[in-house]
Design a protein that fits this description.
Helix content is 27%, strand content 39%. By secondary structure, the chain is an alpha+beta fold. A hairpin with a 2-residue loop joins β5 (96-109) and β6 (112-113). The longest helix has 19 residues, at 21-39. It is elongated.
Amino acid sequence: MRNKQFTAGIDECDERGRVKNAVINDWFEEAAKAYLDECFFEFPNVNQTPMWQQQSLQFDYLNACLANSCVELELSVTELAKRSCTLGCRFYQAGRLLAVGSCVMVFLVDGVVAAMPTISRDVLKSEMLGFLRIDRR
């Protein structure tokens, strides 16, 4: 599980001073890609470019996100497949749950869907198992 913090600028808010939902989506996608990139210690072929592409996104917004206050994102792998994974997230502001969401991220090599390297799958699997253990306390 990873935590990341964000603070919205004035240009990311609506006329009432609330952070736009699209900004929260962007934060999630940015954090998801960075998180998955961190889990990939080594890619076997240096001549190829691995990357992640978001295929689906689902959010439930529970409370308004206010500007100029830190927002904390909790992010973890919740499902793992050969060529993709599902990430779950929760957004908090001042200890209050703002939104929960999930997305499917597909692994690409040189723009083509590909199987993840075994070592990277093992890292993601350990991330997922750690998150599930925490959730069951």
